[in-house]
Amino acid sequence: MIDLLRDLFFDYTIRNVALGAAILGVVGGTLGCFAILRRQGLFGDALAHATLPGVCVAFILSGAKTPIVLMSGAALTAGLGALLILTIVHRTRIKQDAALGIVLSVFFGAGAVLITYIGGSGSGNQSGLDRFIFGQAATIVRDDVITMGILASLALLVVVLLFKEFKLLSFDPAFAASLGFPVGRLNVLLTMLIVVAVIIGIQAVGVVLMAAMLIIPAASARQWTDRLGTMITISGLFGALSGVSGALISATGANLPTGPLIVLSATALLVVSLFLGRSQGFLWSWIGSRRNRRNVLSNTDPSIPYRGGVG
Amino acid sequence: MKPNNVQTPSATFPLEVKGITAAYRDKPVLWDVSFQVPEGQLVAIVGPNGAGKTTLLKIIMDLMQPAAGRATVYGRPFSKARQWVGYVPQRGSVDWDFPTNALDVVQMGLYGRLGWFRRPGRKERETAMQCLEKVGMADFADRQISQLSGGQQQRVFLARALAQDARLYLTDEPFAGVDYKTEQAIVALLRELKATGSTVVVVHHDLGTVSDYFDRVVLLNKSLVAEGPVEEAFTPENVAAAYGGGVKYLAGAK
User: Fold this and answer.
1) What is the dihedral angle through the alpha carbons of A164, A186, B59, B53, rounded to the nearest 10 degrees?
2) How far is it, in rounded angstroms, from Cα B83 to Cα A102?
3) Considering only CB atoms, which residues of chain A are within 8 Å of chain B?
4) Residue A304 pLDDT > 90, yes or no?
5) Assigned domain for B96 exists
6) Which residues of B touch A37 (CB under 8 A)?
7) Res B7: pLDDT
8) Which of A7, A99, A124, B138 could form a disulfide with A88 if both were Cys (CB 3.0 to 4.6 A apart)?
9) How do beta strands B223-229 and B216-221 pair?
C-alpha cells in the first residue's frame, strides 16, 4: 500500500495514468450530473461510440497515432453524432432513445469496419487502434495528461461560468426560453461539453465503458445531497477517486485492465452511496420511516380529531 | 436590475393576438384566433382538451412559431417585451426530483434580470424570500422540492413568477391538481396581482369556477368561439359551441 502510494508520486507511468484517470473522473462526474438530470445519461454512451470512426479516419488521413490528431478526429465524429441525435429528435417523430440507438450503432459499426480495413491494409503501425474500444490507460503519457488537463480546464470553466444557465436549462427549459435564454444553443453547448468529456475518457476507459464515467459518479453523488452545486462537487470527487483507485489497483501487478477497474471502483462507490447516502440512501430512509412510524403511532396531537377505532 | 414597471406603454393592450393559425405537422391546432386583453383584468382561456390553449401560450411566448398571425405584448413582439411578462408553466412540465430547494426555484425568476454569468446573491435571496412569504411558503424555503405537496409546488411556481415582477402574468393550469384551500389561496393571490394593476391570463379548464374567478373569458376550440367579459361571452350557447354540447354543469353559467 505504502509502495503503491509512493509509486503514485514517483513512478512515471503510474503517475500519468492516475492523473489522466483523475482528470477523466472529474470532468465525467461534473458533466454527468447535467446529463442524468436531463435524462440524457445514455447520450454519453452514444457519443462515446461515435468517436470510433473519427479515431480511424484521423489515423488513415494522418498515418500517425499522435493523440491530439486522434482526439480531434474523435471529437469531430462525436460532435457530428451529437448534432445528428439532436436533429433526429427535433425534426422527426423518432424519440430520443431510438435516436441514441441509431447513432450509437451506426457510428460504432462504421468504426469497426474502418478498424478492420486499417488492419488489413498492412500499414506498419496500424495495430492498437482497437485499444480505444476498451481503453488502455497504460498508454497515457505526459503529453496526453497535459492535453486532457487543458481540455478539462476549459470544460470546467464553461460549467462554472454558465452554472446558473445550465441549471435552469436542466430544470425548466420552457421557463428558461421565456426569460430569453437561447435554450437551443445552450443545449448544443452542454452536449459539446459532454463530447469533450468523452474524448478525454476514451483513451483510458474506451468507448464501451465511457458512459459509466458520466452516469455512475453522478448517480452516486445524488444519494448524498439535494443541492445541484454540492452534487456536482461530490460527483467530480467520486469520479477522481474512482480514476485513481482504478489506476492503482491495476498497478498492483496483477495485470488487470485499468479502464474496467476504474468503472468497478466507481460502482463500489455507488453501492456504498445507495446504502449510506444521506439524502436518498436506503439506510437513512429506513431509519427515517421507522422513526416516522413510531411518531405517528404515538401521536397525541389534538388537531387530529378522529384517530381510528381506539378509545 | 432593470426597472420593470416604468415605461410600459399604456395606450396598447397588455396582450393582443392577431389571426394566429398554427399546426403540428398537418394537424391544425389553432385557426385564425384573434382577441385583445385589456389592462388589469383576470382572463381565463377556456376550452376542451386539444383546443390549443397551451399552444396559444407557447406562441405568445415565442416558444413556437405560428403558421400565420402574431401576438404582441404591450404592442411589441414578445422578444422585446419579455421583461414585463411573468410565466407559470404547468406544474407537471418539470422534474420535481431535481436537486434544488423552494427558495432556489423562486430565485430562477430573477435569472432573466441577472443576465449572463452573474449568480444570484444576497439581494436575490431576499427578494425570493419575500415572494415565498407572499404565497405563504416562507417556512418551506429550504425544503427539497420533491418533499412539497402538489399545491405547495404550484405556489412555489407562482412565487417564481412574482419574482419576475411582471405586468402581465401568463399561467398554465395553475389550479390543476391542487386542493380547494390552495385553489382559494391562488385565486386570492391572482386578485391581489390584479389589484396592483397587473393583467393575469390563466389557462383554465374548470368551467364551474369561470364566473366566480374571472373578469373576462376567451372560449377556444381551435378557432375562437367567443371572447369578452364573462357575463357576455360565457353563455350556455357559447360553452356548448366550444365543447360540442353535452356539458352538464351549465346551470351555473350565466
Assistant:
1) -60
2) 41
3) 37, 39, 161-165, 167-168, 170-172, 174-181, 222, 225-228, 230-231, 279
4) no
5) yes
6) 95, 98-99
7) 56
8) A99
9) antiparallel
Position B171, amino acid: T
Is residue B5 one of the residues assigned to a domain? no
A124, A130 Cβ separation under 8 angstroms: no
Residue B78's CATH number: 3.40.50.300
Tell me how close the Cα of A228 comes to any Cα of chain B, in angstroms.
5
Q: Is B108 on the interface with A (CB under 8 A)?
A: yes
- Across chain A, mean pLDDT equals 88
**Could A167 and B99 be called an inter-chain contact, meaning their C-beta atoms sit closer than 8 Å?**
no
In a domain, B55, yes or no: yes
pLDDT tens digits for chain B (254 residues)? Answer: 444 444 555 568 999 999 999 988 788 899 999 999 999 999 999 998 888 999 999 999 999 999 999 999 999 999 999 999 999 999 999 999 999 999 999 999 999 999 899 999 999 999 999 999 999 999 999 999 999 999 999 999 999 999 999 999 999 999 988 899 999 999 999 999 999 999 999 999 889 999 999 999 999 999 999 999 999 999 999 998 898 866 655 444 44
Q: What is the DSSP letter of B21?
A: E
Which residue of A159, A179, A181, A235 is the best one to mutate when testing the B interface, meaning the one whose CB has the most B CBs within 10 A? Answer: A179
Domain presence at residue B7: no
Nearest CA in chain B to A92: B25
Q: Residue A67: pLDDT band by 50, 70, 90 thresholds? A: confident
Per the CB < 8 Å rule, is B111 touching A222?
no
Q: Which domains does chain A have, with CATH numbers?
A: 2-295 (1.10.3470.10)
CA dihedral B201, B206, B208, B211 (to 10 degrees): 0
Distance from CA of A95 to the nearest CA of B (A): 16
Residues of A within 8 A of B87 (CB-CB) are: 175, 178
Name the domain count of chain B.
1
Within a 10 A sphere around the Cβ of B246, how many other Cβ atoms? Answer: 7
| Distance (Å) from the alpha carbon of B232 to chain A's nearest alpha carbon | 33
CA dihedral (B240, B229, B199, B83) positive or negative: positive
Q: How many helices (H) and strands (E) does chain A have?
A: 13, 0
Alpha-carbon gap, residue A155 to A142, rounded angstroms: 20
Decide: B68 and B21 in contact? Cβ < 8 Å: yes
Q: Which of A286, A114, A38 is nearest to B98 (CA)?
A: A38
